[in-house]
Design a protein that fits this description.
Rossmann fold; 17 helices; elongated; single chain; alpha/beta; 9-stranded mixed sheet; about 450 residues; about 40% helix
């Protein structure tokens, strides 16, 4: 089957979060199943690649035409198509006042880019709000290339909190859609809402874990779209993300001092020694790691508020991440007050991230909500037991007392209580058994790719 996978970011070319990892790993797994897969993504100024330029094409946009350039490269059996425009020549992927307009342009360009490359998909897979207008475009869009009208589509929600809200009439003008749609499914409380439109019109909808599919149907987690989610429930599936098991493999990880595997954990002990020396921490205490965006969603404040109690329990903390300025400052203040017991590194360092996953004894994931999460999968693969809130994909991937430790309430007290339980197990035979169980969990993409193949088959016209 010919599949077009549309994503605002794709690892290793561009990345701000887990979407990039999915956009890299799932298409590759689909290609291994025999599908012909193309991945379309913006050609950012900061793109970590040099695609082959294959010309450009005119895109109907905003009542006129806008020209985009096109580049391609082949990797692991997948064709990557990069869409270039001045709108993507910026220092960051997101965070600008015209983000919705920028990604409307990207969305509107995809039929023309596909036609330019001679690639007519049988199913289009859109991801999050950035490309969620594709189902509406296929149904109502003007000036579409031959074969693109009525294309079936699947939309995956990676995080429903971000919805692509903009002024309704202006958005319809950008996308060259009929003004009559002002009363249609793209509107949400008087504004244009990309995710609302995608939910209403996509032939199939998925979230990145079964529990998250249930959670977003509630007011607490639906961010205003829970009623729509409940309405489209018959076409909604929760499919758990996988993990790139080649990239995240302690038996072959080049960032570690020595490889290790189940039954031969000497390399993990060495990783802890290297990590604690690198961060100026004592090697004798159990080490609790955290690799994360510093954001309210991730519950970082719960860890920082619980920090003094965690230190009293005997834990040291290694934190790597960046984000909210207030959380960054609070983390640095807590580390400064506890030298030798807590270390903070702001920003992102790929090698250090790998060493934290390998060298720590446990990983804290106190998320208020977590659509799927990869950190817990990586940690378990490296024999580092997660201490996590029981929400979304964390609930679906961690088994209490067998592969990690879960807590229900998003409070510092609940986190500390779970960490106390974990501390009581640390150093015992039970801990060693749990490490082995966690390392042998299967988080490969193969199973999820087969499930996606089934959904595409239902859609193919």
């Amino acid at each position: 089957m010919r599949l077009l996978f549309a994503s605002s970011e794709v690892f290793p070319f561009s990345k701000s979060g887990g979407l990039a990892d999915v956009a890299a790993a799932l298409p590759r797994a689909l290609a291994e199943l025999g599908h012909e897969v193309a991945v379309a993504t913006p050609w950012y100024r900061t793109l970590a690649a040099d695609p082959a330029r294959v010309g450009g094409t005119e895109v109907p946009f905003g009542g006129g035409f806008d020209r985009v350039s096109v580049g391609t490269l082949e990797c692991a059996g997948v064709c990557f198509a990069f869409v270039g425009h001045d709108a993507f020549q910026r220092d960051q992927l997101y965070g600008y006042s015209d983000d919705v307009r920028r990604f409307c342009l990207f969305t509107r360009s995809l039929p023309q880019v596909g036609a330019h490359l001679g690639f007519l998909p049988e199913v289009v897979h859109a991801n999050d709000w950035h490309t969620a207008y594709l189902p509406l475009l296929f149904e109502q869009g003007r000036q579409l290339p031959e074969g693109w009208t009525g294309l079936p589509s699947l939309l995956t929600i990676h995080n429903i909190q971000y919805q692509g809200v903009s002024e309704l009439e202006e958005t319809l003008h950008w996308l060259c859609l009929p003004a009559t749609l002002k009363e249609g499914s793209s509107g949400h409380f008087g504004a244009a809402n990309a995710l609302q439109a995608g939910l209403s019109l996509a032939g199939q909808i998925t979230t990145v874990s079964p529990s998250y599919a249930q959670e977003i149907a509630t007011p607490e987690y639906g961010y205003g779209l829970d009623e729509t989610v409940r309405t489209v429930a018959p076409k909604l599936s929760g499919l758990l993300n996988g993990l790139d098991t080649d990239l995240w493999d302690p038996a072959s990880d080049p960032h570690l001092p020595r490889p290790y595997r189940v039954g031969d954990l000497g390399g993990k002990a060495e990783a802890k020694g290297v990590l604690t020396a690198e961060l100026g921490l004592g090697e004798e205490r159990p080490l609790l790691g955290l690799v994360s965006r510093l954001a309210d969603q991730k519950g970082i404040d719960l860890l920082l508020e619980g920090g003094p109690a965690l230190f009293e329990l005997g834990w040291s903390i290694a934190l790597l991440g960046s984000g909210d300025a207030g959380l960054e400052a609070s983390a640095q203040e807590l580390a400064a007050a506890n030298p030798g017991t807590m270390a903070v590194r702001l920003g992102f360092n790929e090698g250090l991230a790998h060493r934290i996953y390998a060298g720590c004894d446990a990983l804290a994931i106190p998320s208020r909500f977590e659509p799927c999460g990869l950190a817990q999968m990586i940690a378990m693969r490296y024999g580092t037991l997660p201490i996590a809130r029981a929400t979304g994909g964390l609930r679906d991937t961690i088994e209490q007392g067998r592969t990690g430790f879960l807590f229900e309430q998003a409070t510092p007290e609940a986190l500390v209580e779970a960490a106390a339980y974990a501390r009581s197990c640390y150093g015992t035979e039970r801990w060693t058994v749990m490490m082995g169980e966690a390392m042998q969990e299967d988080f490969s993409w193969t199973r999820s790719a087969r499930r996606y193949s089934e959904l595409y088959g239902r859609l193919r016209r």
